[in-house]
């Protein structure tokens, strides 16, 4: 019979020999295997104390970037929302008023910007779509929460701290 | 000190010994649950409980506390009296067996010789057999009173399993008794102290006894009365709170006592090689003997766990075939050969 892969093994249906019928040798072999595992290195990562190293291209939680002067880069063009395959991003645009030039980089800005982290699949398309370098994915992941609404991240959760205001 | 023709010191000594043995078996049973989970985890390349206390050592306390504070549910259609009687019997019987096991040699305290054994009965082995057979009543009554088909199935399984495996166990022991010529556990240990361990004289008997001990304790590969994935937990399916705790606890105490029995009968009990040529005081030797006995017990408890996490459960017909068609003939042959050899040596 032709097999699909070269890993196929025919079943051995020959009657058991006396040694096999005694079962004990097989049981002792098995106990030897479990004894070996007793002293193996454990696979567990004791999470809160120990953290697994992420790969350099890990895509974690989003952040909204600011420019060098601490102004929000996002201009609410909606390209990220269009690119998002999970439809996790919503936003509302607003016009920049005179006197707000130190807050927003462009004449239009996002008054509301929300990402639903339960919908997000962390594909990184929003990051690629953004023409203003406003959306980036960081190296942390969304912490657990008791309620669904806790996973809808608004602007206050996403915006990085203002480097000007901190000084 | 004798008052009212009662030796009061004797009474105090025995009460202390009984409480000591009880506390010991309870603590060992408690920490067996921790040990079981640790061994299981290590064998499966995991870490096991490590959150409650250092190394998870407070885990048994947390489990016990949880069981105490759980709501106690007695099903409406169960037999209330028998429902409570089941776990009580299981627990009581499990605690009774330790009375005749010699935990150590005699020690001398303030001029009195104190034997580290609650009761040196001359029919020690018979006593243990009687009490251990009663243990299945707890499971049977509990499973029957639950009025649940799974519990009933489990208790039927437990009863037939214990009957099937008590026979080869008894036959294996008869061969041992032919060699030793006594039913007293203390004397059996003393004979091994001056001779060789019985496991060298009775390897087949030991193997049969060990397999039957697994079956009597309802441990994997013979855990059909519990069989979580077939019977939803078996005979303790309807139990909650500390009554469930009693059933689980009794199982671990039984494991402890079985290990003690195996160590006593086949591995020299509290005796160890060169015990008499060490030249220490009598008390020091007795305490060291107790310590060594304890290590032997812990080793066998570990073997119980080791086997549990290695071998899958038997099918029911395989279990019966192993008991009736393999172990009983083997034990009979072992008995006959031993008897013939004993006769031959006498002439």
Description:
The complex is a heterodimer of chains A (167) and B (347). Chain A is of the alpha+beta class. Chain A has a domain at 62-166: Alpha-Beta Plaits (2-Layer Sandwich), CATH 3.30.70.3270. Chain A contains six helices and five strands, in the order H-H-E-H-E-E-H-E-E-H-H. In chain A, strands 2-3-5 form a three-stranded antiparallel β-sheet. A two-stranded antiparallel ribbon of chain A has the order 1-4. The radius of gyration of chain A is 28 Å and the shape is elongated. Chain A starts with 17 loop residues before the first helix and ends with a helix. The relative contact order of chain A is 0.18. With 347 residues, chain B is mainly alpha-helical. Chain B has one domain. In chain B, 67% of the residues lie in helices and 3% in strands. In chain B, the strands form two sheets. Chain B has a two-stranded antiparallel ribbon with strand order 1-2. Chain B has a two-stranded antiparallel ribbon with strand order 3-4. In chain B, a hairpin with a 2-residue loop joins strand 1 and strand 2 (6-7). The longest helix of chain B has 36 residues, at 8-43. The A-B interface holds A 27, 30-31, 33-35, 37-44, 46 and B 39, 42-47, 50, 306-307, 309-311.
């Amino acid at each position: 019979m032709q097999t699909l892969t070269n890993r196929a093994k025919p079943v051995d249906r020959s009657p058991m020999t006396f040694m096999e019928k005694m079962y004990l040798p097989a049981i002792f072999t098995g106990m030897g295997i479990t004894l070996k595992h007793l002293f193996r290195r454990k696979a567990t990562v004791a999470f809160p104390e120990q953290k697994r190293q992420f790969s350099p291209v890990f895509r974690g939680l989003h952040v909204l970037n600011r420019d060098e002067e601490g102004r929000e880069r996002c201009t609410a063009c909606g390209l990220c929302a269009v690119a998002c395959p999970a439809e996790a991003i919503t936003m509302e645009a607003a016009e920049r008023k005179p006197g707000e030039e130190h807050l927003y980089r462009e004449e239009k800005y996002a008054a509301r910007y929300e990402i639903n982290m339960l919908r997000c699949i962390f594909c990184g398309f929003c990051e690629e779509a953004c023409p203003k370098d406003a959306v980036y994915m960081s190296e942390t992941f969304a912490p657990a929460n008791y309620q669904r609404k806790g996973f809808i991240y608004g602007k206050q959760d996403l915006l990085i701290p203002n480097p000007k205001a901190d000084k | 000190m004798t008052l009212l023709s009662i030796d009061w010191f004797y009474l105090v000594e025995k009460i202390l010994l009984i409480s000591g043995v009880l506390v010991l078996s309870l603590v060992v049973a408690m920490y067996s649950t921790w040990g079981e989970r640790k061994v299981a985890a290590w064998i499966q390349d995991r870490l096991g409980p490590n959150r409650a206390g250092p190394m998870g050592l407070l885990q048994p306390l947390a489990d016990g506390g949880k069981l105490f504070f759980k709501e106690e549910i007695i099903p409406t259609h169960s037999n209330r009296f028998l429902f409570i009687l089941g776990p009580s019997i299981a627990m009581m019987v499990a605690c009774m067996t330790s009375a005749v096991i010699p935990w150590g040699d005699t020690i001398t305290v303030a001029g009195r010789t104190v034997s580290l054994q609650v009761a040196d009965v001359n029919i020690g082995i018979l006593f243990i057999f009687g009490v251990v057979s009663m243990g299945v009543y707890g499971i049977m009554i509990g499973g029957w009173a639950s009025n649940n088909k799974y519990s009933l199935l489990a208790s039927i399984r437990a009863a037939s399993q214990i009957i099937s495996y008590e026979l080869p166990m008894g036959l294996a022991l008869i061969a041992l008794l032919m060699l030793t010529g006594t039913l007293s556990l203390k004397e059996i240990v003393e004979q091994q102290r001056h001779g060789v361990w019985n496991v060298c004289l009775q390897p087949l008997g030991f193997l049969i006894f060990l397999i039957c001990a697994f079956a009597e304790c309802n441990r994997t590969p013979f855990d059909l009365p519990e069989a979580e994935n077939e019977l939803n937990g078996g005979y303790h399916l309807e139990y909650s709170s500390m009554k469930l705790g009693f059933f689980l606890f009794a199982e671990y105490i039984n494991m402890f006592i079985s290990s003690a029995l195996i160590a006593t009968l086949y591995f020299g009990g509290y005796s160890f090689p060169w015990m008499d040529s060490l030249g220490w005081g009598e008390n020091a030797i007795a305490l060291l003997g107790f310590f060594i006995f304890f290590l032997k017990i812990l080793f066998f408890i570990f073997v119980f766990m080791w086997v549990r996490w290695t071998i899958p459960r038997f099918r029911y017909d395989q279990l019966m075939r192993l008991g009736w068609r393999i172990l009983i003939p083997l034990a009979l042959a072992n008995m006959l050969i031993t008897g013939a050899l004993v006769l031959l040596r006498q002439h």
